[in-house]
Amino acid sequence: AQSVTQLDSHVSVSEGTPVLLRCNYSSSYSPSLFWYVQHPNKGLQLLLKYTSAATLVKGINGFEAEFKKSETSFHLTKPSAHMSDAAEYFCVVTTSRNKLVFGAGTILRVKS
Amino acid sequence: EPEVTQTPSHQVTQMGQEVILRCVPISNHLYFYWYRQILGQKVEFLVSFYNNEISEKSEIFDDQFSVERPDGSNFTLKIRSTKLEDSAMYFCASSEVRRDTQYFGPGTRLTVL
């Protein structure tokens, strides 16, 4: 069965410093992987997706993620955090029937 | 840019009452989904729907739940007799084809008293 583990429930960074949100997945087949972001009182917005093309995936707002099969990881990074990046981030894996399996979420706090 | 919309944004109901949560998926999408997020817990899959029938449902989606596409634009989730534990944020999503990206609505916060 597919599953996702987000290794940090909270991450705090200073504005202008790099962001790293960690995600490990488990899948019995070649999965599609996603990062979604949820700002307070907003819906789930797609940041980026991996679907077995390039292993380094670029998303919106300067975020990117690297698929590493050997490590079963799909960590989300951004070179320089902005105040508007403060939100909850979800790593998501698909099942063979396109059901999404969500991680527990990582709350990103950006300090000025 | 097309988006998924959901109404109402917040619904308060008494235990035992029926509620209907409404969603308008993106117009050319064919696959529709409901997920929910109980406060402090993970987002969980409830049901997927294609070609006017349920494709897959989770163990959460029992006989108290039903989905319907009553016309060409709306997609609804009905809870027949709400329980306290149904209090959650309910998200609708849609995708163009089965293995494609799912786009989410803003959610309906259901509070059962």
Major sheet details of chain A? 6 strands, mixed
What is the alpha-carbon Rg of chain B in Å?
Answer: 13 Å
Determine the number of helices of chain B (DSSP H or I, runs of at least 4 residues): 0
Q: Averaged pLDDT of chain A, please?
A: 92
Low-pLDDT sequence parts of chain A: none
Question: What is the H/E order of chain B?
Answer: EEEEEEEEEEE
Largest sheet of chain B: 7 strands, mixed
Describe the global form of chain B: globular
Taking all Cα atoms into account, the compactness measure Rg of chain A is 13 Å
Protein model, in words:
The complex is a heterodimer of chains A (112) and B (113). Chain A is an all-beta fold and 112 residues long. Chain A contains no helices and 12 strands. In chain A, strands 2, 5, 6, 10, 11 and 12 form a 6-stranded mixed β-sheet that branches. A 4-stranded antiparallel β-sheet of chain A has the order 3-9-8-7, with no helix packed on it. In chain A, a hairpin with a 5-residue loop joins strand 5 and strand 6. The mean pLDDT of chain A is 92. The mean pLDDT of chain B is 93. Chain B is globular. By secondary structure, chain B is mainly beta. In chain B, strand 9 and strand 10 form a beta hairpin. Chain B is built from no helices and 11 strands. In chain B, the strands form 2 sheets. In chain B, strands 2, 4, 5, 6, 9, 10 and 11 form a 7-stranded mixed β-sheet that branches.
Question: Summary?
Answer:
Chain A has 112 residues and is mainly β.
